[in-house]
Structure formats: C-alpha cells, structure tokens
Automatic annotation (TrEMBL):
This is Uncharacterized protein. It comes from Nosema granulosis.
Length: 288
C-alpha cells in the first residue's frame, strides 16, 4: 500500500517521462506472431549492436513471464520487443525456430546489452528454454548510477561556481573562496541512499531527470496474453501493461548513454530526445 501511495504522490509532483510514439515500434513475440513481422525483426537486429533489456515476473508465482528488449539502432524508429514466455509457440514450429535465431543475434558476441539489474540472474530461468548462449556483454548500469550522479552534481556545482565568480570577477580572492564554499548543486538534491544501496529506476529518474516513471503496473499477471482477444485481462489493463513494459526498458536506454559517456545534467537537458535512443560510442565503465 505504501508503494501505491508513494507512486501516486510522485505522479502528482513530477512531469511524466514521455516518449514520442514515432521513434519506436512495439513487437509482440508469441504464438500468433506473423512471419513477415519476424522477418522484419531479424532484418532490424542484424545490424544492431546495442540493446537494453528488462524482465517482468508473474505476480501469482513470481516466475519470469516477460522479456523486454529495446533496440538502439543507428536510425530511428527502434523496436521494443516484448517476448511473452507463457504464450510462445510449440518448439517444433517455424516461429519458435526463428525466435531462437532472434535470441542468438541479439546476444551474439560483441553486442552490448544494458540493464537496470543483474540480467545473468534475471534470465537464468530461461537459459534452458532456448539453445542460446549469452555471448554479448551484459552491462548493468544500476550500480554505476550513484557514482555518475555524484559526479554530475559536482560538475553542476563547478558550473554554478564559475558563473558566480564570473559575475563577481572584480572581487578579491577572499570573496571567491567564500563563493566556493557556498556553491552547491542547487538543481539536483543529494542522494537519499546510503553508499552501499542501489537506486531504484524510478528514483534515478526523479533525482537525475526530474521525471516520473509510473510503477503502478509492476505487479501484474504478465503470463496472460497482452494481445489476444481471449486474454482474461481487460483491454484497458493490457494497454497500461504494454505501456509500462515499453517505458521501463526504454528508460534504461535513456540513462545508459549519460552514465557511460559521463554527461552533465546540463547536457542531458539540452539533448534532443531522439538522440537518447540511437547508437552511441560506448566506453568501459569504471570499476565499482
């Protein structure tokens, strides 16, 4: 109940994270997937080397039920691939074989897959489901967020200080030293977490981006079909779940580039949203 109250409070106090529908397309991977749609996915991911990945579990038994994969292509639109694990076709079917091929392409060597959480752990239940190996680089950006956030606040403080000293250019060193001691980052609050704690994705967006990600649909019946007319879930509820699953994985992409390339808050604010979702030059994250 407290999580629901907290979620509603944040919704009222922060602007919502919004993504133009023109820059992504949602693909459902299930037993009803058409051949031409699968061919489109395979063609798209063949030239794609960066992805974000997330998972959702069925609320009734906590079993992995949905895998979300967001492609980070050279040119938009990207694809949000929603793999409904409880709705997959028979193993001997053409579609199942192509799903296996899709996984092999996405997780192939030299690919980078960003996540908010340990995907080696989250994907373990399905490693026996498909005959594929994770050869790509699984990059969990969650533990790197605190270091980036503190660094970005420092840069904000330096920029603020530079401006204030520039305005007071004619004052003496004593005044400049005084300004140095009075120039904290005023636009982003200090971390609410202890140094050993991991940030939630929602709090990372609140503090780092001043944006709200709705977590109201986290606990849900993810093993039920998201698209079938025979689904036990009402249409309106399924639409909310689809939007949640889409935004949750795209939120990882949104933060990946700023964390990896060490963007300042100022740069994040100035950046066109389209540029947040295309291929970028990666670099090795610092050791934790």
């Amino acid at each position: 109940m407290n999580k629901i109250i907290d979620n509603n409070r944040l919704r009222e106090n922060y602007p919502s994270f919004a993504i133009p529908t023109s820059i992504y397309e949602i693909i459902f991977v299930n037993r009803d997937m058409k051949k031409e749609v699968m061919d489109k996915v395979l063609n798209h991911i063949h030239d794609c080397t960066q992805y974000s990945i997330d998972t959702e579990s069925e609320m009734s038994n906590n079993q992995l039920a949905l895998i979300q994969i967001h492609t980070i292509p050279r040119e938009l639109p990207s694809l949000v691939i929603l793999i409904e694990l409880a709705q997959l076709p028979r193993e001997e079917s053409y579609t199942y074989v192509k799903i296996t091929e899709m996984f092999q392409l996405i997780f192939r060597s030299k690919n980078e897959l960003y996540s908010w959480g340990n995907m080696n752990v989250e994907l373990k239940p399905v490693k026996d489901l498909f005959t594929w190996l994770i050869l790509g680089d699984l990059i969990n950006i969650q533990p790197h967020f605190p270091g980036w956030y503190d660094w970005a606040r420092t840069q904000c403080r330096v920029q603020n200080l530079t401006h204030r000293i520039d305005v007071n250019r004619d004052v003496g060193n004593t005044t400049q030293n005084h300004l140095l001691s009075l120039s904290p980052c005023s636009c982003h609050r200090a971390s609410p977490y202890e140094s050993h704690q991991l940030w939630s994705l929602q709090q990372a967006f609140i503090y780092g981006c001043n944006l709200f990600i709705d977590k109201a649909n986290t606990l849900n019946h993810w093993s039920s079909s998201l698209t079938s007319e025979h689904s036990p879930l009402p249409y309106a509820r399924r639409q909310k779940m689809i939007k949640y699953a889409t935004y949750d994985v795209m939120a990882v992409t949104y933060l990946a580039q700023p964390i990896i390339q060490r963007w300042t808050f100022k740069k994040m604010k100035k950046m066109n949203i389209n540029e947040m979702f295309i291929t970028f030059k990666s670099s090795k994250l610092p050791p934790l």
